[in-house]
Amino acid sequence: MPSGGVPCFTTARELVSRSQVNSSRFVYGLVWITTSKTVAAFIAVVFWVAALNGFIAAASLVNEVRVQGNLRVEEDAIRLSIQAQQGQSFDQDVVDRDVKAIYRMGFFDDVSADLSADGILTYTVKERPYVKQVDIVGNDKVSTDDIEAALGIRPRTALDASRLQEGLQRVLRVYSEAGHVNTRVDYVLTPEENNQTVVTLTIIEGKTLRIQKITFEGNREFSDDELKDVMNTKEEWFLPFSTRGILDPDVLTNDTALLSSLYYDHGFVDHKIDEPIILTRGEGLEVVIRVQEGERYRVGAVKLGGD
What we know:
The chain is α/β, with parallel strands linked by helices.
């Protein structure tokens, strides 16, 4: 060992990666450092690496789990969706799953997670506004109860924007199936205190179309007229004040049961009546009903005999 030299043990792999090492005499990882300046620099690096490793270890440990941003949703309910625990090592995959699980609760517009330098893991949520009330105006041809049922948005529940859009489409479908085409549904969200909102639907009802034609597909045993006679839904008559041709979805649904009874009574046990299809044809509607008659079964004469 050279005079004044201080031995330092490290690996050759580490040395190769350090650009500041120019030329040193080493054999398979044994290095002799010969100058006092180099010794001081080496000691500083050792302490720096040790401190860095300690910092990384501390930052990777979850010292505390916090939840913030919730107003109405209880913190305990949110924590049921959190798998990360105090005292465990930080795991990004676990935290990602926690964020998704909290979001799937359905109460939040946004969920995020953050790990601070001192090991505090914080889940931050942004609650969806709560529906204070639902107001519906402008509806004359469809009842408020039917619109509310189709909308599916209830007071004292979290407002989901995607569910609201789906509900609006269902309301339009209710009008369309009842023959009220070109109906428009507008909505306004009015913010209230405590993160509440009032949902107001304004209905601009379109023109009412009547049934001009009822057609059947797949029927062989019974003619179209014979099947129409069984139904309560009728085609329009061009007479003043006539109510024929008005489409009532409930009546039409019952008509399919009446048609089914007709086929069953005539031996078509395996028949099938599809759900009616409503088509807009110019200034009127066409109802299309598809029939699968199946095989007809007949019961022969039964003779009783004895000795």
